[in-house]
Write a structure and sequence with these properties.
Radius of gyration of chain A: 23 Å
Largest interface: A-B, 41 and 63 residues
Number of strands of chain A: 5
Strand content of chain A: 5-15%
Structural class of chain B: alpha+beta
Number of strands of chain B: 4
Shape of chain B: globular
Order of helices and strands of chain A: HHHHHHHHHHHEEHEEE
Strand order of the largest sheet of chain B: 1-2
Largest sheet of chain B: 2 strands, parallel
Distance between the termini of chain A: 46 Å
Strand content of chain B: 15-25%
Structural class of chain A: mainly alpha
Oligomer: heterodimer
Number of helices of chain A: 12
Number of helices of chain B: 4
Helix content of chain A: 55-70%
Order of helices and strands of chain B: HEHEHEEH
């Protein structure tokens, strides 16, 4: 009993342990929520969803308060970066982003932020990446931000092309994109932007190739992205694929010349 | 995506158009059972049993499914088209192939 009381006391005293406990709680709540959602009757889903969103809000609020209570401590940096990278676009994230950049301008931890925003189609993301790619950020952060920026810009190029082609896809973009993002897409020249991203990826490969990311060295990833940009773009002849089918019989993509081919990268998951 | 692919198989049955898969599952033997159950009839390359297989790596694939549509010359004509867009892409290429325009042989 005494040891439990001591442990509890230690947790309350140690901000790092407190943050770890907030993160663990939220991650368990997330697993529980997504695990149960499919099994719940329709009527209860809304309730569960709103409870989950309340739980998230409380956890992020606690983490932000913790950071405010220990402003110069490493734990504040961890808390702020965690909020920004796991909560996503929101007022709280913007506030925490500004805070962490002001108080921990050269922390390696900032490298966790860019990958979380590659798929966020909003104008501010480009500005964030640009600020993360500047001095005094360490190489790990600058490289990660530049690579994320290249990915983000390529996605924008794809959307800009679909907008120009018109049809249903263009309508969908117009319907869902926010105004500023849409204006940016409409102003974008896909060819010029692709050239700029090509140069950016070449720079990442050359200057930040040794930087590690969760999915391998940036050099390897930038090289693969450049290869896709240069050789797997629309209009290029597809590289040969030679291998074995699921029965172990060898075949080649080029056997299908003369026919149209739908190449489908798939998995049974 | 299986139901949609199956309907494509039906649509393309007598057309000069093939579905070629690149499969990133870990176990080809277990997968054969799935092929039977799901009535998957298109041919797939087995990509070394992981999502980091040589073909997916060469093609820089990081999301599944990823779709490319090639014309009769093996030229990449569409990328990551889905649903009705995919149907339109295939129809456009079929029309080209049949009219003997570039790509048709």
């Amino acid at each position: 009993m005494l040891s439990i009381a001591c442990l509890l006391f230690a947790c309350l005293q140690d901000p790092a342990a407190e943050l770890a406990s907030i993160r663990k709680q939220l991650s368990e709540a997330q697993d529980a929520f997504y695990g149960s959602l499919g099994k719940l009757p329709e009527a209860e889903r809304e309730k569960a969803t709103s409870a989950w969103s309340k739980q998230q809000d409380e956890s992020y609020a606690k983490a932000e308060a913790l950071a405010a209570a220990h402003p110069k401590d490493e734990v504040a940096c961890e808390a702020l970066v965690w909020i920004v990278s796991s909560l996503g676009p929101s007022e709280r994230s913007t506030r925490c982003f500004e805070r962490v950049l002001a108080d921990f301008p050269a922390s390696d931890r900032l490298a966790e932020i860019p990958p979380a925003y590659v798929y966020v189609e909003q104008v501010f993301v480009g500005e964030w990446f640009a600020r993360l790619a500047q001095e005094p950020r360490p190489a790990k952060v600058r490289g990660t931000a530049l690579f994320a920026s290249a990915q983000h810009r390529l996605r924008a190029v794809g959307s800009a092309r679909r907008l120009r082609e018109g049809g249903e896809a263009a309508e969908r973009i117009r319907k869902f994109a926010d105004k500023a993002w849409l204006a940016q897409l409409e102003a974008l020249d896909p060819e010029l932007e692709t050239q700029a991203v090509d140069a950016l990826l070449a720079r990442v490969e050359k200057e930040f190739g040794e930087v590690d990311s969760s999915r391998g060295k940036l050099g390897t990833r930038a090289k693969a992205a450049l290869h896709e940009l240069r050789n797997l773009a629309i209009g290029k002849i597809a590289p040969e694929i030679a291998g074995k089918d699921l029965e172990g019989v060898a075949f080649k993509l080029s056997e299908y010349r003369g026919k149209g081919v739908l190449l489908d990268f798939w998995g049974n998951w | 995506m299986y139901p949609h692919e199956r309907s494509l198989v039906e649509k393309l049955k007598n057309e000069p158009f093939a579905i070629v898969g690149i499969n990133s599952d870990s176990d080809a033997v277990a997968l054969r059972e799935v092929l039977k159950q799901e009535n998957i009839t298109w041919r797939s390359f087995f990509d070394g049993g992981s999502t980091h297989g040589p073909i997916a790596t060469e093609w820089n694939v990081s999301g599944w499914p990823t779709i490319y549509v090639l014309d009769g010359e093996g030229r990449i004509r569409f990328k990551n088209v889905r649903g009705p867009q995919l149907e339109q892409a295939i129809d456009a290429l079929l029309a080209e192939l049949k009219s003997g325009k570039p790509g048709a042989k």
